[in-house]
Amino acid sequence: MFFEGSEKKANIIIDVKQLSLLDDIADDFWLALVQCCNAKILSTIENDDCKAFLLSESSLFVWHDRLLILTCGNTRLVHSVEYFIQHMGMNKILQITYQRKNEYFAHAQLSSFGDDIALLRQHVDGKAFRFGELDGHHNYIFHQDNSFQVSGEDKSYELIAYQICQKASKKLTTVGLKSHEIRKFLQLDRLLAGFILDDFVFEPFGYSINAIKGMQYLTIHITPQANSSYVSIQANINLIALAPEFLTILAPKSIDILSFNEFEFSELTQQYIPQEYISKSLFQQHLSNNDLVCFANYIQPQTIFSQAELLDIQGQRHAL
Amino acid sequence: MFFEGSEKKANIIIDVKQLSLLDDIADDFWLALVQCCNAKILSTIENDDCKAFLLSESSLFVWHDRLLILTCGNTRLVHSVEYFIQHMGMNKILQITYQRKNEYFAHAQLSSFGDDIALLRQHVDGKAFRFGELDGHHNYIFHQDNSFQVSGEDKSYELIAYQICQKASKKLTTVGLKSHEIRKFLQLDRLLAGFILDDFVFEPFGYSINAIKGMQYLTIHITPQANSSYVSIQANINLIALAPEFLTILAPKSIDILSFNEFEFSELTQQYIPQEYISKSLFQQHLSNNDLVCFANYIQPQTIFSQAELLDIQGQRHAL
C-alpha cells in the first residue's frame, strides 16, 4: 500500500472591494469546494484573520482576501479551483497560482500538470514554469498573467523532507500513536507557542496539523512510510530559519526548500541548512506577477551501499 | 514534444541443449517479437557470435544462448518477453531478468513496473527489487527465481547520462546532423576500434548505435533534447573505466552507473568517476540467481541559481 504525499496547491487572491470577505462565506461553500477534489473537511479552527480547515487530504486556509488550499493523494485540486472560479466569477479574482510537485507515483495520478493547466487556461490566462530538473525534484507553478502585482511582503515557505530517517519513520508509523505524542516528537508545542493548533492522526498512519496565529499559518502533513516518506511543512513564517529544528528530528536524505518573496534566500540557506546537505538543484525566477520564487533541492551524499528494496507482487514495497 | 529515453530491458538465457542456437533462428521470429512491443527492426549486423538489431526504439542482441533487448519510448517490452516465452516454452528458458528505470514522463507510460511484473509472474516465478530511492533515480529489476546461477563472468554495465551540457545538447539537436558527425563528436571510431558499427540518426533528433566485436557489445541511445536529455550507454565491456571519456564530452548534471557482476565496483568508481560528481545513491544486492547488482547515482552540486523553465500550454518545455 502506498500513499502519494506530495501536494497540489492553489493560492487565490480576490478583490475585497467586489466581494464580501472570504472568511465570512458560509462553510457549506468550502464543503462543496473541497468535495470537488474528493476531499472532506475533518475539523476547523479560526481566529479574527483566518479560518483553517483540516482536510482528509491536507488543508484549506481562508483569510479575508485570499485562500490557500493544498491537497495530496489522488485529489484533482484543479476541480476545486474551477469551482471557485465558476462561483465567484473571474472578474472578482485578482490572482490565481497553481502549483504541483514531482510525485512518487506519477503514473497513479488522475492527471498531469499539463492536463491541469490546460483546464485552468480555459478560464485564466497564465504562464507556467518548472523549477527543478525533470529527472529530479521539481515544482510546477502556473500563475495568472494580468496586471496584478503580488506584494513583496507576501512571503511563504515550503520545507519538504523526503526519505526521513529510520528512527523517525518507525516512530511515526507506530500503531495507535496519539496526536500529543507526535506533537511532542516534533516539538510543536514549543515551536508553535501561541498558535491555535488542530491536528489529526490518520489510519493506518499519517498526520496533519494546522496552526494559526493572527495572519500566520503553518501546516504539516506527514506520510511516514519508509521509502516513500514525505513530510511537508508549509507556512508564511520563516521555515528556512526553522529548518535545523525539523532536520534534526527527521534527518531526511533529501529536502526541498521553496519560497515566495524571500529576498534573502541564499543568505538564509547558507546560514541554516546543515553542512551535510549538498545543493543538487537551485532555481530562481521573478514571475511577471511580481512573485520571486526560489527553489532548492538538497541531498545527503551516500558513501555506503544500501540494500535494494524487495518488492511485492504489485511492484510495491513488501509490507513491514 | 517529448520523448521518453529511458529503457525497459530484458535478458533471457536459454538451454542450448534443448533448443537450437538463438542466432540461428530466422529473422522473421525477431521481427514478430519486436512488433509485440511496437518496435521495428531498422538494420542488422552480425559476426560469428552475435546478431545485433538496431530498432526503431533501441536494440536487440542475440547470441547463441541468450538475448538482450532494450526498448525506450512508450514500448511495452514485457509483451515481447511474453511472446518469447509462449513460442519457446518456459522449460527451455534458464533465466529471465526484466528491468525498468525511473522515467521522465511516468504518467505517459502505458504500464508501470508493477503492471509488467504482474504479467510476467503469470509465466515465471521471480523476485523484484528496486535499486535507488523512489524519489530519485532508480532501477527496478525482476529476475526468475529458480536453481539457475548466473556466472560471475557475465559482466555488464550501464552508464546513463542525464541533463547533458548545453554544448552537447545543442550539437546533438543540430538539424541535418549526419551519423559520421555524431561518431566523431563521441569519438566512437577511436573508442570502438575493431567493432562492427551500425547506427541511425532519428528525425527530428536522436541517435542509436550498435557495436559488436566477438561476444562483446556496446550500444548507445541518445535523446538529446535539453531538459529531458538521456544518453544510455550499455555494454559488456567495462564502462566504468570508459566513463571519463563520455563524461568529458557530455558533461551531464547527473549519471547513473549500474553493473552486473562487477566485483570491483567501489574501486573502479573511485578511480574513474570525476571528483565533481557526488554520490547521491549507492545500492548493492546479491540476487538469488547469483547476479551481483550495483547501482550508483551521482550528481553535480549546483551553487548558482538557474532560471525556471517556461512551459507551453501542454505543460511541456517551450519549443526551441
Kindly describe this structure.
- Two copies of one chain form a homodimer.
- The first copy, chain A, is an alpha+beta fold and about 325 residues long.
- Chain A has a single domain (about 10-300), classed as S-adenosylmethionine decarboxylase (4-Layer Sandwich), CATH 3.60.90.10.
- Chain A has helices spanning about 25-35, 75-90, 115-120, 165-170, 180-185, 190, 240-250, 265-270; strands at about 10-15, 40-45, 50-55, 60-65, 65-70, 95-100, 125-130, 140-145, 155-160, 195-200, 205-215, 215-225, 230-235, 255-260, 280-285, 290-300, 305, 310.
- Chain A has an eight-stranded antiparallel sheet with strand order 2-3-4-5-1-6-8-7, with helices on one face. In chain A, strands 10-11-12-13-9-14-16-15 form an eight-stranded antiparallel sheet, covered by helices on one side.
- In chain A, strand 7 and strand 8 form a beta hairpin.
- In chain A, helix 7 runs parallel beside helix 8 (about 265-270).
- The mean pLDDT of chain A is about 95.
- The interface between A and B is large, with 61 and 61 residues.
Salient structural properties:
homodimer, 320 residues, alpha+beta, S-adenosylmethionine decarboxylase, eight-stranded antiparallel beta sheet, 21% helix
Q: Most extensive interface: pair and counts?
A: A-B, 61 and 61 residues
H/E element order of chain A: EHEEEEHEHEEEHHHEEEEHEHEEEE
- How many alpha or pi helices of chain A? 8
Mean of residue pLDDT of chain A? 94
CATH superfamily of chain A: S-adenosylmethionine decarboxylase
Let me know the number of strands of chain A: 18
Assigned CATH class of chain A: Alpha Beta
CATH architecture of chain A: 4-Layer Sandwich
CATH topology of chain A: S-adenosylmethionine decarboxylase
Give the neighbour order of strands across the main sheet of chain A. 2-3-4-5-1-6-8-7
Instruction: Return the structural class of chain A.
Output: alpha+beta
Subunit arrangement of the protein: homodimer
Spatial shape of chain A: globular
Percentage beta strand of chain A? 35-45%
